[in-house]
Every structure is written in C-alpha cells, then in structure tokens.
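Hello everyone,

My group is preparing for a crystallization screen and wants a predicted model to guide construct design. The compound we'll soak is flavin mononucleotide. Before spending weeks at the bench, it would help to have a computed complex in hand. I've included the protein sequence and the ligand's SMILES below. Output in structure-token form would be ideal because that's what our pipeline reads.
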Amino acid sequence: MDLLPERVDLVTALARARSPERPGPDTSAGPVVRAWPGPPHALPQAAPGQLDLGRLLRLSLAASDGSGRLRPAPSAGGLHPVDAVLVVGTGCPLPPGRYGYDPLGHRVHRLGPEADGTLPGATVELSVTPRRTVSHYGHRAWPLMLLDTGHVAAALWLAARALDMAEPVLRLDGLSDGPLAALHFTLPQKAGRVSQPEGPSRPMDRPAPGELLARRSAATPLTGTPSRDVLRAVLATAVQASAGDLAWCAAVGEPRPELVESAPDGTLRRLAAGEARPTLAVWAAGQAWIADAGAVLLAYGCPADADAALIRRTHLRAGFAVHLAHLAAVRHGLAARPVGSWQQADLGAALGAPPDRDWIVHGLALGTTHPDEEKTS
Ligand SMILES: Cc1cc2nc3c(=O)[nH]c(=O)nc-3n(C[C@H](O)[C@H](O)[C@H](O)COP(=O)(O)O)c2cc1C
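Reply:
Good plan to model first. Here are the tokens for the complex, ready for your pipeline.
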C-alpha cells in the first residue's frame, strides 16, 4: 500500500476499505509526533490586537490532561495521525514564517519563511502521517484519516469560537494536493478586545474553553434512547455543519426502533421503520455494542463512483460535522462516541434505493447513560 498522501489512489483505497477484507496484524505506528527539524520554540503570549495562537492551539491540538492522550480531538484507535503546519503572517505572536507544531510540547519548529502573499493572521494546514493509522487499520486507514482530519478542523473551529475570535475561513473542499484541510484565522477586529467570560453572559452557542478540553469519547456500552427533542437538535447540528455534502439520519432503539431524519421544517420524520442497530454493528467492523446503543447518528453519501476530491470532501465534512454534533449531544446531556470504520455499509441499498449511492461515511453513537460516571460512583 502506497502511504504517500499525494500518491495514494483514494478511489481504490476507499473501495477496499469498504470491502469485507480484514486488516492484517498491527505494525509499528512510529513516533507519536512528526519529527519537525530544528529547535523547538515556545509560543509567546499574544499582545493586544494579535492573534492568540497559543490559546487557540491549547484548546484544539495540544496534549493537555496528563492522561497520556495525545490530542484533545478524538482519533480512530487513538492514533492521532494529523499534523499541523502554521503559516504565520503579520499580527501574530511569532515572526512570520512556516512552523511545524508539536502537540506534546506545545512548541513550534520554524520550517522556513512565509510564501509571498501570506495573509495577516495565521493559517493552520492539516495533513497526516499515514503510518500511524495504517499500523492498526491497514487498508481501512484512509477514510479514517480523512475523518480524523475533519475532527481536528472542527476542534480548531470550536477553539476560535470559544476564544471569541472571528469565524475562521475553512477549507475542506478536498481539492488540495497539499494539505488535506486548512483554516485561516484573521486578526482580531478591535485591538485589545477582551474575550467574554465563561459566566452566564456567554452566548449558548459558544463553547467554554473547559468544555473543549473535557471532551472525551464516552466509554461503551452507550445505552438509553435519547428524547426526540434532543435527537432533533443533534441531527440539526450535523446537517448544518455538513454544508449539503452529506445526508444524515439516526437509527433509534426501543421503544420504537426506526430510522429518523430531519424534515425541512426542522421536525423529525421517519425514514424507515424497524430495527437497524444490529446491522449497523455488523457493518461497523462487528462492534457488538452498537446494537445496544441508544441511537446512532449516521452521515451517508459518497457514492461508489466518487472521485478523489469528492471522497476527500465528504469524509472531511463528515468528521467536522460529527465533531460538532458530539459537542451538541454532550450539551444536551448525552454520552457520545464516534464510529468511523464501516464495511459494506450501503445504507441506500439496504433501504431499497439503487445500490452504490448512499454509503455510510461516519457515525456517532449516542446514549443517555454515562458508564464513566456509574463506574466511579
Ligand atoms: C474518525 C474516528 C473514528 C472512530 N471510530 C471508532 C469506532 O469505530 N469505535 C469506537 O469505539 N471508537 C471510535 N472512535 C473513538 C476513538 O476510539 C477515540 O477518539 C480515541 O480512543 C481517543 O479517545 P477520546 O476521544 O476519549 O480522546 C473513533 C474516533 C474517530 C475520530
């Protein structure tokens, strides 16, 4: 398998990842962080009017809680293949240039000067070290790495919101043959603007820094059917965040097992009657606990004839949207866990539509129980 991102044949890689073929034994994942050249530099504190790169990265990419977890964002198998390069322009606490980011040390390594035309503020370019995810998932790695990248993009996007920064310019178009995704952060509008407190005056849709750092994938089993109101809110978040690139539905369990989706008026409507979760468990690499999940949010689309750009775009978007849906779910009191490895998951065909159009791309298992808390109480 060719591991170089620019040489990989994504169309073939996705078809193989969706097949029943099982990965071989694990191989070495290599170093946990890319070996950036040159000495590490601390990220200086931002002066008033500068882009606060240090806090932005602390809330999104830095290994933070001493538990051994490598990043605050989730990652298939906890392997964290996503690397970040900072393209720094004027108005930042670092001199303009390109920097590799080390999430373990929360340090940067200067890679070289910035290109002509670099914008003020900073762009975070995301790419992957395939060896990390391939070490466990083998030929199933590529869709997972794209989903992981989408989650990291969302973590950066949410960090900007938490810090009351302007909304970043998000590039998840899948067209790039360089970085898989990029976010550009502009300079603060008003010099010296102070972030709002985390207290009651904080708008509901703005996450608190602590919420982002506390995010975890809930331990399984994840049982208890969410209320329809909460499901509707979580589905609406996913639909909005996926910018029309994917369709969404949720498989819900007892007392009335069915597949539901968002209607145009924002209410929930039935997509199909009956129990889907045991089939989902088989499709998701045989993870039996999924059959008992309270609900499973599903992103689908990305047909079998999708070209490489569409494969990149749909998977990046699915990771981005599931990440936002995860935060929404937690805010509504649910426990949630992403589910990214899907084989033979042609949802459209299973529902009687033409085959090869609507494949499951990503999922988020939901429950009302919190096994982590129960264990400790
Ligand atoms: C793209 C993606 C796919 C994932 N797929 C699964 C999965 O199929 N089953 C599962 O139990 N967890 C899955 N996870 C959750 C990871 O195992 C989890 O993020 C990782 O162990 C790190 O833990 P944390 O999220 O609590 O930081 C997935 C996460 C991501 C980002």
